[in-house]
Design a protein that fits this description.
The protein has a 3-stranded mixed beta sheet. The longest helix has 14 residues. The protein has 5 helices and 3 strands. Helix 1 crosses helix 2. It is globular and about 35 Å long.
């Protein structure tokens, strides 16, 4: 059932699937979380059709060793380069959280204030 669900998800959500494939291939993440938030922007600029499944607004969290030694702006540029075609094809907003494995581990063990 899981394979069928994944295949259906890929067909029904092509931009999501391309983000997943390209980030996985380009950055070999140890963690990748992709959230399609297009439904929150239905009818707004960037999603004028009002379609909640328009695949125009994404939040992406990536943990990858490829980010080691790079400042956040350089990390974001890496992701933008990888997803250049998807951005040209209609991604209106791309919110990124990029961490190294060490940063992700430190965030897990940090005590809340």
């Amino acid at each position: 059932w899981g394979m069928l669900r994944r295949a259906m998800s890929t067909v029904m959500r092509p931009i999501y699937a391309r983000i997943e494939a390209k980030v996985t291939s380009g950055l070999a993440p140890t963690s990748l979380i992709i959230k399609d938030e297009s439904f929150k922007h239905a009818g707004h600029s960037g999603n004028p059709s009002g379609d909640p499944d328009a695949e125009t607004h994404f939040k992406v969290e990536i943990v990858s060793a490829a980010f080691e030694g790079k400042m956040p702006v350089a990390r974001h540029r890496m992701v933008y380069e990888i997803l250049d075609q998807e951005i040209k094809d209609g991604i209106h907003a791309l919110s990124l959280k990029t961490k190294t494995p060490a940063e992700a581990e430190k965030a897990k063990t940090a005590k809340p204030l």
